[in-house]
Amino acid sequence: MTRTTDRWMTREGYERLQEELRVLRGLPDDDPDTAGADGGAGSTVPAPRYIHDPAVRQARVHTIERLLSEAVVDEAAPDDGIAAPGKVLTIRYDGEDEAEEFLLGLRDASVADRMTVYSPESPLGASLLGARRGERRTFTSPRGAVIGVTLLGAEPYRAFVAG
C-alpha cells in the first residue's frame, strides 16, 4: 500500500481543513485580541484559541497545507472486506461483547460527531491495515498493554454512509 492512501479523508474533513487554513491565514500577527471569538467575519470555523502565537499558528498552517496536498479525498475504497484507509471498520476487542465501529482515515478529518476516526498511523489503525474479516491482530497501547482485536468487517465509507 502506498503512503498516499494513508491520507484518506472525507470531503467534509477536507473542506473543514480548507476553512481552518483560510481562518488562520486571515488572523493578524501583531494583536491576538483582534482575532475575535468567531475567527473572523463570516467564518464558520472559530479560530483555535491556542494559536495566538504567530510561530505556532504558522506551524499549524504548514501542517494543514501538507495534509491538504497529500490528501486522497473521498475516493471510494474497494469493497473487498480488507481493512484500509477510507473504510468503516467493525472490530471487537478480546474479552468484550460489544463491537465498535470507526472510520480509518486522517484524524484531522473527523466526520463531525457522527463517527470516531482512527488514523492508519495509530497503534490500532496500523495493526489492522490489511486485515481480513475474522482476522485477529494485536497492538501495543501507549501505556504498554498488548491488546487483541478481531476485525468483524470493513466497508467502504461511502457505502456505509449511503446504506
UniProtKB/TrEMBL annotation:
Pfam families: GreA_GreB
Protein keywords: Elongation factor, Protein biosynthesis
Domain Transcription elongation factor GreA/GreB C-terminal residues, every copy: 82-150
Keyword Magnesium: no
One Gene Ontology MF term: translation elongation factor activity
Start and end residues of each stretch annotated as Disordered: 26-48
Keyword Protein biosynthesis: yes
InterPro entries for the chain: GreA/GreB_C_sf, TF_GreA/GreB_CS, Tscrpt_elong_fac_GreA/B_C, Tscrpt_elong_fac_GreA/B_fam
Gene3D superfamilies: Transcription elongation factor, GreA/GreB, C-terminal domain (3.10.50.30)
Signal peptide region: none
Annotated protein name in UniProt: GreA/GreB family elongation factor
